[in-house]
């Protein structure tokens, strides 16, 4: 606000003394380095340079529409403009003109103000999708894990409600799930067309997951959204019964029992043979010398 007042006073001073009429080429430098920045459909336009003795006005043009202005971006001293609310058709292609204009109290000998045009921008295909959240549910048998994915919210309102990504992209929105065992570096990737996915896992193992939005209809460099934070399932200490199962353990016990019986039988047979040998030795007549 202080800066605006300074420029306003300067303009009035120059007007009073008759030196407010200046050349447009010297006084109104064109905007440059215009870039779009859009995350979850919140879309900003930014540019350079910072104004020193002029202001900027932004006009947005869409398919078959007249130029629209954000009231906050008219004769502004900022080099950024939030155009989110002006995108009424998210699949349309837009461009913006950044006009270099005078400050109040100044006049220039120009038919129209100089401007710079941005590159084309389509919210539906160009906005970056933020990280989703998800919940982990382990089955009672612990043989599978189900992820319940929560759609990121957009910056777009409809009927006083913020739309989420599923509301906007519908069947175009898929999710890519990257997961691995907590104690392993090897990873697997699965894709789901819905907000739920069930994965087969090893019993008792902890698994770690990342999730990101996946929109295959887009260009390759804009298909994937931001990765979610890592979440891991809890590991459970498994008993020997859980690890091998009752049938396997019963079979092992039966084999061990058979081995014990066989060893006992061999010992008994050996003892019997030893007693018989001693008895035969005892019954032999003594040899006379």
Describe what you observe in this structure.
This protein has 289 residues and is an alpha+beta fold. Helices cover 25% and strands 31% of the residues. The strands form 6 sheets. It has a 4-stranded antiparallel beta sheet with strand order 14-13-16-17, with no helix packed on it. A 3-stranded antiparallel beta sheet has the order 2-3-5, with no helix packed on it. A 3-stranded antiparallel beta sheet has the order 4-6-8, with no helix packed on it. Strand 2 and strand 3 form a beta hairpin. It is rod-shaped, with a radius of gyration of 40 Å.
Low-confidence stretches: 1-24
Biggest sheet descriptor: 4 strands, antiparallel
Structural class: alpha+beta
Number of beta-strand segments: 17
Q: What percentage of residues falls in helices of 4 or more residues?
A: 10-25%
Sequence of strands across the biggest β-sheet: 14-13-16-17
Comma- or semicolon-separated keywords:
6 helices, 289 residues, rod-shaped, alpha+beta, four-stranded antiparallel sheet, three-stranded antiparallel sheet, single chain
Topology:
Elements: H1 2-16, E1 21-22, H2 24-27, E2 32-39, E3 42-48, E4 55-61, E5 80-82, E6 95-101, E7 107-108, E8 115-117, H3 123-126, E9 133-138, E10 144-150, E11 153-158, E12 161-164, H4 165-169, E13 174-181, E14 188-192, E15 196-200, E16 207-214, E17 231-232, H5 240-244, H6 246-283
Parallel strand pairs: 1-7
Antiparallel strand pairs: 2-3, 3-5, 4-6, 6-8, 9-10, 10-15, 11-12, 13-14, 13-16, 16-17
């Amino acid at each position: 606000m202080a800066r605006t007042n300074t420029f306003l006073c300067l303009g009035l001073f120059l007007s009073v003394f008759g030196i407010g009429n200046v050349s447009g080429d010297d006084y109104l430098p064109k905007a440059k380095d215009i870039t779009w920045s859009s995350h979850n459909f919140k879309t900003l336009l930014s540019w350079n340079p910072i104004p020193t003795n002029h202001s900027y006005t932004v006009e947005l043009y869409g398919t078959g529409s007249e130029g629209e202005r954000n009231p906050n971006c008219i004769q502004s001293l900022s080099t950024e403009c939030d155009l989110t609310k002006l995108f009424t058709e998210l699949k349309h292609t837009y461009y913006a003109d950044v006009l270099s204009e005078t400050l109040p109290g100044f006049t220039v000998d120009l038919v129209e103000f100089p401007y710079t045009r941005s590159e084309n921008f389509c919210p539906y295909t160009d906005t970056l999708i933020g990280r989703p959240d998800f919940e982990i549910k382990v089955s009672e048998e612990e043989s599978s894990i189900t992820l319940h994915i929560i759609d990121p919210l957009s910056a777009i309102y409809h009927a006083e409600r913020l739309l989420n990504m599923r509301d906007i992209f519908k069947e175009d929105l898929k999710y890519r799930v990257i997961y691995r065992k907590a104690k392993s570096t090897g990873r697997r990737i699965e894709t789901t067309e819905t907000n739920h996915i069930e994965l087969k896992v090893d019993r008792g193992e902890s698994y770690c997951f990342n999730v990101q939005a996946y929109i295959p209809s887009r260009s390759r460099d804009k298909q994937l959204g931001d990765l979610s934070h890592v979440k891991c399932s809890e590991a459970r200490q498994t008993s020997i019964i859980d690890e091998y199962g009752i049938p396997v353990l019963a079979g092992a016990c039966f084999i061990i029992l058979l081995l014990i019986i066989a060893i006992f039988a061999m010992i008994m047979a050996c003892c019997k043979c030893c007693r018989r040998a001693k008895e035969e030795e005892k019954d032999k007549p003594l040899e006379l010398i």
